[in-house]
């Protein structure tokens, strides 16, 4: 294999963007030429990349989608230019990540992959990593929170058209579902990857079920996420109180915002809850024992909060495979999470607790049980568990098991 190409909404930032650059680093060291095509933001200069379209194009795509609910069916010129780049680069393998994000016309792209890229190769290789459920629904990326199962047979009258990729007017969920069901299945040489067993089980129920599906969990950099001393407890007046940590971007009901407020009221002054990622309007009228912190891009700050917290609490009501759980454990902090999607898959009895969604009484009991454990043994177990999810291990899994190299 000589050339591998990546297609994703971002490159070099965020969890999906860092997967791509991490793989490119290792493949370059192996003498394999790589190219990443991305649609939003900027990419690191040290990589060979191609920007799909422009920022105004993304804004136009998003604006029209909000009226028509035909997200992913604009950016026609940008996609045709992308196809020309693919032809010139002539990759042996194309690895696709998120095709939603207002930057590419998925109908044009997948028509090209099916009718040209696959057809002219004796052994075509396509890999598609699904980071959410968008590929097999008529609109949404997640449906667990509202308990919708229309995607099993055919979407219509979407109850989440006001959620990403939101539409203020039209509801084209039925047409979107039919188009995806026509375009995505039956492509020769395509294999799917999911970051969690939970998402794999969902795909296996969908119209994508006939593809080979592998699980490659998203990894973390354990050289960055490790126990680090700080003065945060003193600076925020926590002292010897119980310190719980919650992180979301953005905070909303389906990410556990309301449950955190209820939890703060129940635990009272003997506890402090640091909530990172709050918007300014959400910081008003919070319980007195909540430490309100806005969005931060500082990994140093995040590592310090993970390290000084007694428990990382993840009350998400839907998620594919949250890496924040891994980041906390890498810093020696146990995790308490709802059993939502793939959130509990990385947590063991030795490293925390998984409880039923919405059961705050179970959350309280779990906090009490975790706090009774030997602290040093708990920290060691958490760090050891996180080492099973190193980014390097997951990159090697992709290259060897999914790409078949080495």
Can you tell me about this structure?
The chain has 406 residues and is an alpha/beta fold. It folds into 2 domains: 3-219 and 391-402, 3-Layer(aba) Sandwich (Rossmann fold); 232-389, Rossmann fold, CATH 3.40.50. The protein is built from 13 helices and 13 strands. The strands form 2 sheets. A 7-stranded parallel beta sheet has the order 3-2-1-4-5-6-7, sandwiched between helices. It has a 6-stranded parallel beta sheet with strand order 10-9-8-11-12-13, sandwiched between helices. Helix 10 (323-330) links the parallel strand 11 and strand 12. The longest helix has 16 residues, at 14-29. It is globular, with a radius of gyration of 22 Å.
């Amino acid at each position: 294999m000589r050339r591998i190409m990546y297609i994703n909404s971002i490159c070099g930032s965020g969890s999906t963007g860092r997967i791509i650059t991490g793989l490119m680093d290792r493949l370059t060291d192996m003498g394999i030429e790589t190219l990443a095509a991305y649609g939003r933001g900027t990419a690191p200069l040290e990589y060979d990349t191609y920007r799909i379209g422009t920022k105004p194009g993304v804004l136009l795509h998003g604006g029209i989608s909000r009226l028509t609910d035909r997200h992913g069916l604009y950016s026609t010129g940008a996609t045709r230019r992308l196809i020309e780049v693919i032809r010139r680069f002539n990759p042996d393998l194309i690895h696709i990540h998120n095709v939603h994000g207002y930057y590419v016309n998925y109908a044009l792209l997948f028509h090209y992959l099916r009718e040209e890229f696959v057809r002219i190769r004796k052994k075509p290789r396509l890999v598609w990593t699904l980071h959410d459920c968008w590929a097999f629904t008529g609109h949404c990326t997640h449906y667990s929170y509202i308990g919708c199962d229309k995607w099993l047979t055919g979407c219509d009258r979407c109850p989440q058209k006001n959620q990403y990729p939101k539409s203020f007017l039209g509801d084209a969920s039925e047409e979107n579902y039919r188009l995806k069901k026509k375009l995505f299945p039956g492509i020769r040489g395509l294999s799917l990857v999911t970051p969690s067993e939970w998402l794999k089980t969902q795909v296996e129920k969908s119209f994508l079920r006939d593809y080979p599906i592998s699980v490659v969990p998203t990894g973390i950099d354990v050289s960055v996420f490790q126990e680090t001393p700080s003065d945060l407890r003193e600076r925020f007046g926590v002292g010897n109180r119980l310190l719980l940590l919650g992180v979301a971007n953005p905070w909303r009901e389906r990410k556990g915002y309301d449950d955190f407020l209820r939890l703060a009221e129940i635990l009272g002054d003997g506890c402090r809850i640091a909530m990172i990622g709050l918007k300014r309007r959400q910081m008003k009228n919070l319980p007195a024992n909540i430490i309100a912190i806005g969005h931060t891009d500082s990994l140093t700050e995040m590592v310090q909060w993970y390290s000084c917290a007694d428990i990382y609490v993840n009350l998400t009501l839907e998620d594919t495979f949250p890496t924040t759980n891994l980041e906390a454990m890498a810093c020696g902090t146990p995790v308490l999470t709802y059993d939502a999607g793939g959130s509990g898959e990385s947590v063991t009895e030795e490293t925390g607790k998984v409880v039923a969604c919405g059961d705050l009484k179970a959350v309280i009991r779990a906090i009490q049980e975790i706090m009774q454990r030997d602290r040093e043994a708990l920290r060691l177990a958490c760090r050891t568990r996180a080492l099973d999810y190193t980014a390097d291990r997951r990159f090697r899994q992709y290259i060897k098991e999914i790409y078949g190299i080495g």
